[in-house]
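Entry details:
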Amino acid sequence: MPRYAWNKASTEVKRRYFELIRAGVRGAVAARIVGVSLSCGSVWFVDAGRVSFTERPIDSRYLNQDDRIAIADGLDRGDSVKTIAVAIGKSYQTVYREIARNKKPDGTYQPWYAHNQAFLRRKRPKQRRLARDEELRAIVEARLAHHWSPGQISRWLRRRYPRQPRWHICAETIYEAVYRGVLGPSSRQRLRTGRSYRHRRGRGRTRDGALKQCTTMKSIHQRPAGVESRREIGHWEGDLIVGSGQRSAIATLVERKTRLVKLVHLPRGHSATALADVLIDAFRGLPAGLCRTLTWDQGNEMFQHQRIERRTGLRIYFADPHSPWQRGTNENTNGLLRQYFPKGTDLTAHDNTKLEAVAAELNDRPRQCLHDQSPRQLLAKWERRTNSMIIRDDQ
């Protein structure tokens, strides 16, 4: 591509020129202020496309003008997309999508053109998909009436109507339609959560987590690699399911390899001391081979984790703040348990007998991830193998 004189101006000069244009300054005046000719400014203007909009502050998770300039400079240098993403603090998928969406028709990436295209795409007062498509809305409402989750509906639409891409909506689109009332007020009651609006997750933690309170907590990144592979039994994940008004709770424990569930009654509340006492009792009753590690979130209820480690021999690790996927087995189990213990109910009404019955029902249920074996069957196999090894050692 030939290099004209107007392309030799610095990035800062061009940035200042477009800032003036977006502020409503005439092209001739803007060119004079930044020290270029009117024709030079005109070429920049034509090359960038529409720029006559007022720049408004947007959320930091979106790309701004400086980010797009850095992407263009990186591409000119021949940097890889991943290198550019690290430099601007974004994911490489974000940068890939940005280049694909906002490049010019000739395939080149021009930062001002890209910024304008992003603005035009953002400013689109279109009617929402489920609001304007009555047939699709009826289909989604029918599935919600049968208590399908938005994720299940989204995947089913893709399988059932592969040749209708306009019906391939994501689960978040369905959630948004439910919360906005597009699918009718009764649709909110059909969500498994029973929730009628988005809310912040967490139990009073700061974004930095409880590690500020106790620096001796071991991060999940220090956890042995063998825990992640699920090759060894005895590695647990834990959490609380909390009742109405944050006044009652049940401690849930699930073993990573066998998916064995243990439910721990908290009759004296879920303070750090009360939780430590019941967890010590729960793990003391397990064989040594079933008591290796425990992974928890950074909730304040685990403040006495060192006492639990000393009394049980467990090694306790803590997931990153706001990272529930790092304890995915436990999060999935808590979702199953909400069928027995709905949100907003008083959990103190359930005694140990009830908790043991629920845990037994889950432990006898065949799991697809276990090749349709139940957690209890896997535990029995482990016990037989352990016993046979002890007998051989004795002989």
The chain is about 45% helix and 10% strand. The longest helix spans residues 375-394. The first strand starts at residue 218 and ends at 219.
